[in-house]
Amino acid sequence: MAFLMPGDSCDLHVGLLAEMDHSIQTITPASVATIDREAMDAIRDTHRGVAKAMYSAQLIDEGAMRAWITSMGRRASIERVAHLMCELYLRARNIGLVSEPSLALPLSQLLLADALGMTPVHLNRVLKELRIAGAMSLQRGSLLITDPEKLVQIAGFDENYLHRRLRRAS
Amino acid sequence: MAFLMPGDSCDLHVGLLAEMDHSIQTITPASVATIDREAMDAIRDTHRGVAKAMYSAQLIDEGAMRAWITSMGRRASIERVAHLMCELYLRARNIGLVSEPSLALPLSQLLLADALGMTPVHLNRVLKELRIAGAMSLQRGSLLITDPEKLVQIAGFDENYLHRRLRRAS
DNA sequence: CGTCACGTTGAACATTCTCAACCCGAGTGG
DNA sequence: CCACTCGGGTTGAGAATGTTCAACGTGACG
User: What burial class does residue A154 get, using C-beta atoms within 10 Å of its C-beta: 0-12 exposed, 13-18 middle, 19+ buried?
Assistant: First the structure.
């Protein structure tokens, strides 16, 4: 339902619930920082500004999930794939993770297919289709966008949806 | 992506963002209460307990959205329909809204199909299938569950997923 | 009585899945 | 060094699932 990249945080507030309703996995070696419950409680209670910022972050995450739902419900599989690739590419670029011309994406087709709600076999064919169309190719853990415009057009990607802005402090 | 019932709240915190990334509609006449931004800010800042509770509510909503994503990605359409009906039924019952033996569900097939990510035509056929199977029937805005067990079984419904609990105050 | 929104149905088609096979490169034990 | 295995990736063929388009029914409402 989501892919995290270096610097992303997740589940900052699970401490409030009795149990997790989902799980998180690393798919590469990773350094993971944790914040214990007491610390989070303290931050929330004593730093109103930070608390507010965390609320906002939460809302933005929710927006991303809504986008994901739309993707699943309304987009054909090839659009879904293209869209996710656009998103991952932009996010990676925003944190300086793209080593032009390609981006390291250590995702097995199995994983991707699952995330996108389709069969590995079908994903494979879709990737092939995108490759043949000359839009992008994903091979040996590396994403190469050969024709950005075409990819964006297939995906119906709107760059703006990643940039949810905050209301200026009143 | 969600259906609200009497007493449900939504978007308590949109005040934090510069713009909405989604919309809300009434599908029946409804009384809607609004809380203005200043009041919400004040509550968040001065009532830590309430703020915490609202965080939790937010997390629970998020869980619901995750469930929705799972539904879209992994369930066949008949399962999706059955699952949503189970959920709506239980939620309605929890707030005393079920007038046995049936539940008023003022949802057009158009609306439902859109929410479930399928064609109105196909939804219609799925509903017919469920009716013929004797599990439930949805007609003239009223949901009648004729064989709860069968419906639950078709849906693969786990009653527990609605009852996310909070961590007891430490 | 006409209109309009919604529901229902059929038939052809497109999309996606299933199952099964095969390929390949990286590790592993003999 | 070689055969083996194993986790991906790729491909084909047939079947299931879902869509499209177009028609018709039906009740509410002016």
Answer: buried
Q: What nucleotide is nearest A117 when CA is compared to C1'? A: C16
Chain B residues touching residue A170 (CB < 8 angstroms):
37, 41
Nucleotide nearest to A119 (CA to C1'): C17
Say how many CA atoms lie within 13 Å of B122 toward its Cβ. Answer: 11
Max CA distance (Å), chain A: 56
State the Cα–Cα distance between residues A143 and A124, nearest whole angstrom: 14
Residue corresponding to tokens 């990819």: A151
What are the domain boundaries of chain B?
Answer: 36-74, 77-162
C-alpha–C-alpha distance, residues B146 and B148, integer Å: 6
State whether CATH 1.10.10.10 applies to domain A76-170. yes
Answer whether A19 sits within 8 Å of B52, measured CB to CB. Answer: no
Q: What dotted CATH number matches B77-162?
A: 1.10.10.10
pTM, 2 dp? 0.89
Q: What is the pLDDT along chain B (170 residues), one digit of tens a residue?
A: 999 999 999 998 888 888 888 999 999 999 999 999 999 989 988 898 888 888 888 888 899 999 999 999 999 999 999 999 999 999 999 888 887 778 999 999 999 999 999 999 999 999 999 999 999 999 888 999 999 999 999 999 987 776 655 555 44
Pick the closest to residue B89 from B50, B30, B147, B12 (CA basis): B147
Residue ranges near strand D (C-beta within 7 Å): A 108-110, 120-121, 124-125, 127-128, 139; B 76-78, 117-119, 121-122, 125-126
Amino acid at B112: L
CA of B160 vs C1' of D28, distance in Å?
41
Backbone angles phi, psi at A96, to 5 degrees: 65, 40
Tokens, residue A83? 């869209």
